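Structure ticket #2291
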Amino acid sequence: MNEAVKIPAQDQDAMPADEHKMEPAPDYMPRHPGVGKLEGKVALITGGDSGIGRAVSVLFAREGAKVAIAYLEEYKDAEETKRLVEAEGSEALLLPGDIGKKAHAEEIVAKTVERFGKLDILINNAAQQWLDEDLTELDEETLRRTFDSNVMGYFFCTQAALPHLSEGASIVNTSSVNAFAGMGSLISYSTTRGASLAFSRSLAENLIEKGIRVNTVAPGPIWTPFIPGTMPAEQVEDFGSGVPMGRPGQPWEVATSYLFLCSSDGNYFNGQTLHPNGGMIVGA
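Resolution: structure written out below.
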């Protein structure tokens, strides 16, 4: 079991926040040599610039996939992720913009197919979260922004991707432990993650006859830009200590779930959820 990494108090006045400003840096690098599990595949990963998305991008590249990385405006983080993908001997395409707008979702899919000739894997991962302990103080703009990013973006990207996905393709949607356990200080975010879970399960049933598998990853407390971008500095210092493993997870420890579900290792998984959450027991 990995030892806990000491995380000092810190925060950022941005959402999404910047990975390159975090201390210590999240651990995103794969632990094992690639064996070609995604050789010849093309993956579109939203929120691929940092956090879990970066870890998935690098791991997929190591396993042979070409990677299109969609992100909002974290240009420095995205450039570093592109460098990391290329260091694995693969190719990366950077796609900045707001997936909560349908036209942009359609554009990033079109650019991915134009660049790489096809699309095999869609990872709906981009999201935003805000503290909202008092529901009466949650303003409409922030609420709509959260749902546009975390729910509408998943619908729009999937709608755009489906005409290009054929039998054997895979879609993985990011949810959260909060979709199962709830979180009183993250009401809107937890609600959107419940929506992505229901979206996965419903879409899995809808697409199975086409041979397209749809699954979910529901991480627990992971050391990503979400944390300093959301929490007060004093809460960041204790982040993740309350789970049975006593520490936050690192992005690389979550990325392996996406690889499993998108490779032939996960061929018999559809409509299912994997839970990299440090030992929290939640409903399946």
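Closing remark: The chain has nine helices and seven strands.
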